[in-house]
Amino acid sequence: MRRTLRQFSLTMTQVVKRSDAETESSLGAYERERLARMERNRMLMEKLGVTSLSNRLETITTVREQALKPIGYSKRTPKAEKRARNSENEVDRGELEPRRRSLRVRGIAPAGAGTSAEEPKNSQLQLKEEETSRGPFLEDQTFAEVALENYGATSESSMVNDDYDRSDVDDVDGNKDDGDQKSLCTRRARLFQRAWCGAMACTSLSTSEHLAKDPSRFHRWVLDEASGFFKLVPARIYSATMHPRLDAWTMMVGDKAGHVGLAVVPRERVAEHAVQVLCMRVHRDTTAGMAPRAGSANSQQLLTVSYDGSARLLDIEKQTIQTVLVDERERIFKSIALSTENDNVFWTTASHRSLGGFLVRHDLRQSQKSFDAFGISDSRVYSVSLQHQGAAGAVPGHDGLLAVTTARDGVLIFDQRRIETGATRRSTSKPLFALPHERATTAATWSPSATRLLTTCYDDLLRIWHYDGSECSLEHRFVHNNHTGRWVTPFEACWDPATDHKIFACGSMNHNPVHGVDLFHVELNKRSVWNRLTGEPMTAIAAVLAWHPAGHALIGGTASGRVYLWGEAHGSEGVLAA
């Protein structure tokens, strides 16, 4: 303000000094009126003494500011001065050992004195353990070493595993267990092995093929609160499968934390045939895919893949866990498909955050780090489904195709023989067919006859593609809400193995009036849901589904680690045969 007044006063003085002749000649009427008005204002300010008051106030302020400024004044203190000032207030800690890790981890007393002679050795072991804890399990393990002691009970309403035989608490050498955690885990594993082997030794079940293919059988399926609701794993279920045995329902699920839950549910709920559950920490990250090995010699083995970049083989009879595949390039494994030609070969999908999607082939007879990886997409890949070779109705010479789902490229179909022997391991292999989808596809499964492909997409559509040997054409579309959100595992629609390509199931976001599983019939209803599997104890979304290989039962996994089981009671679909 003071500066403005002073400039205004100088301007007025300069204007007054101009000659009247110049003003009259160079200025217009408006400018002359403006100058006259400014002259009147200047005279008024001089009369009131505003100019002298402004000059006096400016002089007083300048003197006060100079008196407050110290010698060598600067707006910001130099860094050297700050360090010097801080060093005066700090205690000299040169003699103390730097504590970058806790004393407890390094094996030192809390006071800092009396260091242990084994401190360097313990520190190296701790650092090595911290580094290896991020990757997969490399060493072989037993069920008792990785079992969870709190997951030995079975259903929600009946804790039958607590009534165990006292002989089960004896270890191998005949010594009594002391009741600690290791003993409890050993007992859980032994009880499950007894239930598994006992059920396998039971009489076989001959099933009527006509009843298995009857679509009306779903109306007889019930969800019993006592025998159809189980807690198998602690975290959200990401993968599930069922063993092909018929004497008992055998469920296998994997969760987000790397656990694998196994359960043997007899088809007759009697006291001497109680449900047995075993939960183990098999992986360090999400157990994303699993598949039981086929064949009589390997019928008691389970293959699992995980986000930690490893695949492990579980032998239920021997109670062992073996690491069969390890990837050192930080790729995550998502799904698994067993080869129909060679029982020792399996396929899995792998994704890298910057390298894109891969299709990995591994032979169990090779070493852990010996496998073939084929780049197939620049985006993330999800599931893989292998067409059954020699299936009834399959096109001769066009079986054994691999269907892989991606985040941006839709569904890619490859010929596994061309990938193996063709031009080989290029950066991106060329697919036989590319099935376009508007958004990311989460699942694609071949029908048992290998002529239909069922896909699940985030565009809220379930599609059925018909393969005739020369092309894949879109045959049906079903509207279905597939937006599961953050807390529910993405849906994966799957075929009913008993009715071939007529009926399929998918998880449902609809909970009005109750939660359930949606069933679709291709021939009877081509637009909406044909039937629903539900029950009174069902209070959550069954997102992960798995059929019994013969179509006699269906399980659904939830985000809480619980599993729902639908199926007819023992004797409804078959009779015991000696």
Automatic annotation (TrEMBL):
Family, per entry: Belongs to the WD repeat DDB2/WDR76 family.
GO biological process: regulation of DNA damage checkpoint
WD repeats: 434-475
InterPro entries linked to this entry: WD40/YVTN_repeat-like_dom_sf, WD40_repeat_dom_sf, WD40_rpt, WD_repeat_DNA-damage-binding
Biased composition (Basic and acidic residues): 78-100, 163-178
Name recorded for this polypeptide: Uncharacterized protein
GO cellular component, one term: nucleus
Gene3D superfamilies in UniProt: YVTN repeat-like/Quinoprotein amine dehydrogenase
One Pfam family of this chain: WD40
PANTHER family on file: WD REPEAT-CONTAINING PROTEIN 76 (PTHR14773)
Keywords carried by this UniProt record: Repeat, WD repeat
Region (Disordered): 71-134, 154-178
Recorded GO MF terms: DNA binding
